[in-house]
């Protein structure tokens, strides 16, 4: 029997690894990969809480479906931005895309 | 240690190891392949959580669509950063520190919560979670509005992505 704590610690670790990827990586596509890891950790948490704390409810699963939809939307727009920036400025390094910085 | 726990620990270890490779691999194509392994491990965890539908959705959407889209983007932009120059920001050690502190704080906060080691409850008799979910997503009493908003969001993201990536003259 697996207690809830296993899933929570796993999701926390996955989220932290994703956070590290987002903060430390230079490449914009790699940053998006870190975001995917974080969203996956959230989904594991949502489904674990649904299964362990409210198995007769539906909210956890419904929220997980929303997270899937938002993740697909986010990655489509994010990669379109990366490709557009690459075409115009020939770089995908997040710290070189600083037109809005002053 | 029961059989399920051993399976969980093996899957979790492989998944976390692959996740570490995703954020540390120099070659982004390799990182994307490690990402696929990570997503697959999470799909196995969904099966262990008795949510097989989400495991299928995970494989179809995350591995089949998102990871492949990532590989497309990497292939289209690979010449610029491939194997030359640093892959990390100068402050990467600070990022590692923040992540470690975040992880420690999260585990500490969760372990002080009373329900931290809730044992697995039985699924309620006579209820099919998938059927319940399907009905809830289209029922006006439940989640039809968020569901429709998610559909519009997806359509908007689709049109937005095409508009952004369109190559004008």
Topology of this structure?
The complex is a heterodimer of chains A (102) and B (169).
Chain A: H1 4-24, H2 28-53, H3 59-89
Chain B: H1 3-24, H2 28-48, H3 52-81, H4 92-111, H5 129-138, H6 144-165
Descriptive labels:
heterodimer; A: 102 residues; mainly alpha; Helix Hairpins; 3 helices; 0% strand; B: 169 residues; Four Helix Bundle (Hemerythrin (Met), subunit A); 2 domains; globular
Can you describe what's shown?
- The complex is a heterodimer of chains A (102) and B (169).
- With 102 residues, chain A is mostly helical.
- Chain A has one domain: Helix Hairpins, CATH 1.10.287.3510.
- Helices cover 76% and strands 0% of the residues of chain A.
- In chain A, helix 1 runs antiparallel to helix 2 and helix 2 packs antiparallel against helix 3.
- The longest helix of chain A is centred in the C-terminal third of the chain and has 31 residues.
- Chain A is elongated, with a radius of gyration of 17 Å.
- With 169 residues, chain B is mainly alpha-helical.
- Helices cover 74% and strands 0% of the residues of chain B.
- In chain B, helix 1 runs antiparallel to helix 2.
- The mean pLDDT of chain B is 87.
- At the A-B interface, helix 1, helix 2 and helix 3 of A face helix 1, helix 2, helix 3, helix 4 and helix 5 of B.
What is the overall shape of chain B?
globular
- Total domain units of chain B: 2
Mean pLDDT, all residues of chain A:
88
Approximate strand percentage of chain A:
under 5%
Largest beta sheet of chain A, briefly?
none
Distance from first to last alpha carbon of chain B = 64 Å
In CATH terms, what is the architecture of chain A? Orthogonal Bundle
């Amino acid at each position: 029997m697996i207690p809830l704590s296993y899933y929570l610690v796993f999701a926390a670790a996955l989220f932290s690894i994703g956070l590290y990827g987002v903060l430390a990586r230079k490449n914009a596509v790699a940053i998006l990969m870190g975001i995917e890891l974080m969203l996956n950790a959230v989904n594991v948490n949502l489904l674990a809480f649904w299964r362990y704390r409210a198995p007769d409810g539906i909210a956890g699963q419904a929220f997980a479906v929303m997270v899937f939809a938002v993740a697909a939307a986010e990655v489509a727009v994010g990669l379109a931005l990366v490709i557009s920036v690459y075409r115009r400025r020939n770089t995908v390094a997040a710290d070189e895309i600083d037109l809005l910085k002053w | 240690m029961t059989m399920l726990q051993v399976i969980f620990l093996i899957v979790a270890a492989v998944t976390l190891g692959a996740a570490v490779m995703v954020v540390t691999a120099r070659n982004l194509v390799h990182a994307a392949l490690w990402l696929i392994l990570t997503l697959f491990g999470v799909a196995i965890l969904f099966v262990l959580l008795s949510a097989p539908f989400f495991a299928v959705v995970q494989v179809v959407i995350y591995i089949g669509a998102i990871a492949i889209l990532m590989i497309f983007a990497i292939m289209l932009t690979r010449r610029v950063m491939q194997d030359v120059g640093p892959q990390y920001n100068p402050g990467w050690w600070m990022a590692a520190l923040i992540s470690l502190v975040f992880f420690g704080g999260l585990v500490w906060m969760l372990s002080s919560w009373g329900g931290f080691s809730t044992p697995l409850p039985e699924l309620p008799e006579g209820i099919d979670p998938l059927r319940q979910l399907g009905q809830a997503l289209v029922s006006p009493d439940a989640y039809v509005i968020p569901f429709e908003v998610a559909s519009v969001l997806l359509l908007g993201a689709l049109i937005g992505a095409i508009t952004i990536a369109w190559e004008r003259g």
